[in-house]
Design goal:
By secondary structure, the chain is mainly alpha-helical. The chain is 79% helix and 0% strand. The protein is built from 7 helices and no strands. Keywords: Membrane, Transmembrane, Transmembrane helix.
């Protein structure tokens, strides 16, 4: 039986290492999406402001923000899901196999819990939510408002702008929903 628990322990440690590698990769990719979004916004705004540009080009900004924002959100959720799985599944199984109890059991992958337990976590999570909405949703909605106020009011483009508004609103709802604002989990 001891060989079986040692093998299971080794498999769990390998799983932990692989998941931490995936988490690290996803964090890097997710964070680079912010730069891609800012660069894309600059391109759309720059094209709009050229002497031959037109305000209808602003309708390109919401799809850019939507695609990059959704990709950001999915990666961010997977980063959180990996952490949750390590805290709630892998760590307890390793503790059990090691025969750890009480504080010893809590010490398995302690960082996975500790960094979520400080008194400033909630402030950081609300701040991050504001930054995420400000990066992916506010610029898209701003572009839409500018288009509605000053742009060419063609029926087809107005229809597109309404659909884009609904899509950006859906993205904002999902960002709020997945913000992980609970104190601990």
């Amino acid at each position: 039986m001891a060989d079986s628990s040692v093998t299971t322990e080794k498999l769990l440690l390998v799983e932990y290492e692989r998941l931490k590698d995936e988490q690290k990769t996803r964090i890097g990719f997710r964070d680079n999406l912010i730069y891609a979004t800012l660069g894309s916004m600059a391109g759309v705004v720059g094209a709009t402001l050229t002497p031959k540009g037109n305000l209808g080009l602003l309708l390109l900004l919401p799809p850019v923000c939507l695609v990059l924002g959704w990709t950001y959100l999915v990666n961010d959720e997977k980063v959180s899901a990996i952490g949750r799985y390590l805290r709630l599944t892998v760590a307890p199984r390793l503790s059990e196999l090691a025969g750890a109890t009480g504080d010893e059991a809590a010490a398995v992958f302690g960082w996975e819990v500790a960094h979520r337990s400080d008194s400033d976590r909630l402030i950081r999570k609300y701040s991050q939510l504001a930054i995420d909405l400000g990066t992916f949703c506010v610029p898209a909605l701003t572009a839409l408002v500018i288009y509605w106020v000053a742009g060419p009011h063609r029926v087809d483009l107005m229809t597109v702008s309404v659909m884009e508004t609904l899509a950006i609103a859906a993205l904002a709802v999902q960002m709020i929903r997945y913000a992980d604002l609970a104190r601990e989990r």
